[in-house]
Design brief:
heterodimer, A: alpha/beta, Rossmann fold, 8 strands, about 40% helix, globular, B: alpha+beta, Ribosomal Protein S5, domain 2, six-stranded mixed sheet, 15 helices, about 30% helix
Chain lengths: ~250, ~550
């Protein structure tokens, strides 16, 4: 019988943390409120993101909650969390999935780091984010940081047909414009579709405060969003988001 | 301070002159839209300047005339003959229902509709006893746009054109005889409208001739009778009414369209070509699973979602009746018994087995074949999202936003979605094969639906609402005796998941795979391995 692969520590390249920190800076400068945040993150074993937040301001990181679905990594993550708690960080690891398992338990604004390795488009992300908006898992005063794989692994023809409406609305006509538009905005497409799916586009105002491309094991991007009361229009939502490339070394 | 002039009181040409001659600030100083802020009025003016380009206009001249009958003249190629008959039946039902509401004692207890065709004269006679039409309303029978139906009546008729189109569709010449049953019994009048070939072809003629009947006994009080000289169909061949397939098609359409209405109003009787036996409801249309055993309850459920919709700024009560259940087969089914959601307006079917409108709320793949149900909108006809022929859905209507996105309503679909998905995994015949104890509840004059619930919905609340606690979701117990199953467990890492998703064409994130995607992967691996093993054995 084949042996189960051993759990190993997950480590990420420096570019990813550079991109994450840059985006965090934009949020702190332009959008963050002087209050504690419930930090909710997706998996990992080292919690370097949470450690960074704790370094910026222990008061900012009120409490961190990390979801890990992999049994072996859950054990490693729990050990890391125990060590960090000894250093004064409030961090808890839960078995499960941020997109399906997490239920909000406090009124404290939340900072979500949805650290995907795949594409934040296609699949069932529209449905999942829609449910999170509808159930108020994500709500006003929250911040979302989402990573996404940038190349069109599904093939450009599928991208063109799937997002034809978005491209028309945003005035992306040529192939080059469509490619750029998709690369810089596809998580926004997903979030906007999620809002529309549950009819909340006139209830919640999403702002994309930036997208940062970085080179990890592959070409990735991290995107930042704030959620406020109001309405979201895709054209202003997407067109007003600054873009930056953070590839060093 | 001088009183401002209402912008709404100006005619178009006067507004254009003002827009051309005055600056926006001056317009705001001299005019107003009562009840509108200066800021909003400014926005109106800016839009009007953009729309009309007043500074580039010379002197106005007037052009145009009354519309022609072309819209209804084209009905001969726009409607099929079943649809034309449905339009007449719709009108009879509406007329009878409206009269029954106003004058219950002076309305026939049973609405009886006869449709018969005389092959010798090639004439079709359509007759009802819905009350007849008084002289002053004869226009309602012939001229598009004239009707007793208003937007806010809970009728089937909606556009005030249907019966007229039916005449143009079916006839080359027509006579319409009606004897009004005056509720006050102060008069007894019978009239015959005569529409000859010339009138039916003339696009500009709306006036029509009519005459009193000398012998009123030719028609019963309260009756209306259409006699159509039928079009030659097909040209040069055996007439359609002598072909059993064509007659069957018309019968099937009538039966399907009014099944729910006939179940709920047994006092309505429709006879087509067989003047002894009225058309019966089509019970096969809703062959729901009645399974209720061993922790599985798939019996259909009916929820009336009641909410307000605005029409011209005024709220009106609308009820969306949604019935969901499970089919007794996972096969694709036939014309009648297949999967899908039927769409109704005031109990009248307009889309059979819709597969797209609620697709985002229902399962994909094989489990989709388990879906059966209906959405029936009760209320003012203006809110029913059908087209003029009542055969298509207009998905852009406001009510569709409520039906497809409101949390309380979509929660009901979500409960059934879970049930369909649970049933859809593996062998289904044991789970869904049981029949309901009846299709029709004759005492209730309704479909036999064991669970019924009414839920008030505030459409302005899009979060923080859910189905009432009294609602019990359908349940599926998939467990089999432990002796019959073996569970095989193994672990794979993210890279392997990614590889296998690619290999088996499974969509979704391999990093954060959904339970459905994992289940799909498990089944793909299981089927692949078993198939591989069988091949090896054959070799």
């Amino acid at each position: 019988m084949a042996k189960a692969p051993a759990a190993r520590r997950l480590s990420y390249p420096g570019n990813k943390y550079a991109a994450f920190h840059l985006l965090l800076c934009r949020w702190l400068r332009h959008h963050a409120q002087p209050t504690s945040y419930q930090y909710v993150t997706l998996g990992g074993t080292e919690f370097r993101d949470a450690v960074s937040l704790h370094f910026v301001d222990p008061e900012l990181l009120g409490q961190a909650l990390s979801f890990e679905g992999h049994g072996g990594r859950f054990t490693i993550a729990s050990e890391t969390a125990a060590r960090l708690r000894e250093g004064g960080m409030q961090i808890e690891v839960r078995r499960g999935n941020i997109l399906t398992t997490f239920t909000r338990q406090s009124e404290t604004p939340h900072l979500f780091f949805i650290d995907l390795l795949g594409i934040c488009a296609f699949g069932d992300y529209v449905e999942r984010f829609g449910v999170m908006f509808q159930n108020e898992t994500i709500r006003e005063r929250d911040c979302l940081l989402i990573t996404s794989y940038l190349p069109a692994r599904v093939g450009w023809p599928r991208v063109y047909t799937t997002f034809e409406g978005e491209f028309r609305l945003l005035g992306a006509g040529t192939v080059a414009e469509k490619k750029t538009c998709y690369t810089r905005h596809h998580p926004s497409f997903t979030l906007y579709r999620a809002l529309r799916r549950v009819d909340l586009q006139d209830t919640l105002a999403l702002t994309c405060f930036g997208g940062v491309a970085y080179r990890g094991k592959s070409s990735m991007g991290v995107f930042g969003y704030t959620v406020e009361p109001g309405s979201t229009r895709l054209d202003t939502f997407a067109n007003n988001s600054p873009w930056h490339t953070a590839t060093y070394g | 301070m001088p009183k401002k002039i209402s912008w709404l009181d100006l005619e178009h040409q006067q507004r254009i002159e003002v827009l051309r001659d005055l600056s926006i600030d001056k317009i705001l100083a001299q005019y107003e839209v009562p009840g509108t802020s200066a800021e909003d009025f400014r926005a109106i003016i800016v839009k009007q300047i953009s729309l009309w380009a007043p500074k580039n206009l010379g002197a106005f001249v007037m052009e145009g005339g009354p519309p022609t009958k072309d819209v209804v003249l084209g009905a001969w190629r726009d409607l099929d003959r079943s649809e034309a008959l449905l339009e007449l039946i719709d009108n009879s039902i509406d007329a009878w229902n409206l009269r029954r509401d106003r004058y219950p004692a002076k309305t026939a207890k049973n609405l009886i509709i006869y449709v018969r065709i005389d092959p010798d004269t090639q004439q079709l006679t359509y007759e009802d006893n819905a009350g007849g039409v008084p002289k002053e309303k004869l226009t309602n029978l012939v001229v598009p746009g004239y009707s007793d139906t208003t937007d806010l009546t809970a009728t089937i008729g909606s556009y005030r054109t249907g019966g007229k189109k039916a005449i143009f569709r079916l006839a080359t010449a027509a006579s319409i005889t009606t004897r009004y049953l005056n509720p006050a019994e102060t008069s007894d009048e019978a009239w015959s409208i005569q529409l000859d070939e010339v009138w039916l072809k003339a696009p500009h003629v709306y006036e029509f001739p009519y005459a009193p009947l000398k012998d009123k006994s030719a028609i019963e009080p309260g009756q209306t009778r259409y006699t159509f000289q039928l079009r030659e169909e097909p040209i040069g061949g055996t007439p359609w009414y002598l072909e059993m397939d064509d007659l069957q098609k018309v019968t099937d359409t009538i039966r399907r369209t009014y099944t729910l209405l006939l179940i709920r109003n047994p006092n309505i009787q429709i006879y087509f070509h067989d003047l002894k036996t009225p058309i019966k409801p089509l019970e096969e249309l809703y062959d729901f699973s009645g399974t209720n055993k061993n922790g599985t309850d798939l019996r259909p459920q009916q929820v009336h979602f009641v909410f307000d919709l605005l029409h011209e700024g005024v709220p009106h009560k609308v009820s969306a009746e949604i019935i969901l259940g499970c089919r007794r087969s996972s096969g694709a089914g036939g014309a009648v018994s297949g999967p899908g959601i039927d769409l109704y307006g005031n109990n009248r079917l307009f889309v059979l087995r819709d597969q797209g409108t609620f697709a985002h709320l229902l399962p994909t793949g094989g489990a989709r074949n388990l879906v059966r149900g209906l959405v029936n909108i009760h209320g003012p006809n203006v809110f029913i999202p059908w087209d003029t022929h009542k055969r298509h859905l207009n998905p852009d209507r406001e009510i569709m936003r409520a039906l497809t996105k409101n949390k309380v309503i979509t929660d009901f679909f979500a409960c059934w979605n879970k049930a369909y998905q649970a049933v859809g995994r593996g062998d289904v015949s044991d789970l869904i094969g049981d029949k309901l104890e009846a299709v029709i509840d004759k005492a209730k004059k309704d479909l036999f639906i064991p669970t019924e619930l009414t839920v008030k919905v505030d459409l302005s609340r899009k979060r923080g609402v859910s189905l009432p606690s009294s609602f019990v979701a359908p349940s599926v117990n998939r467990s089999r005796p432990a002796s019959e199953v073996v569970t095989v467990k193994f672990t794979i890492d993210i890279d392997e998941v990614s590889f296998l998703f690619g290999k088996y064409g499974i969509e979704g994130s391999s990093i954060e795979p959904s339970p459905e995607a994992i289940q799909e992967l498990c089944e793909a691996i299981r089927n692949d391995v078993l198939e591989h093993g069988k091949k090896k054995r054959r070799n």
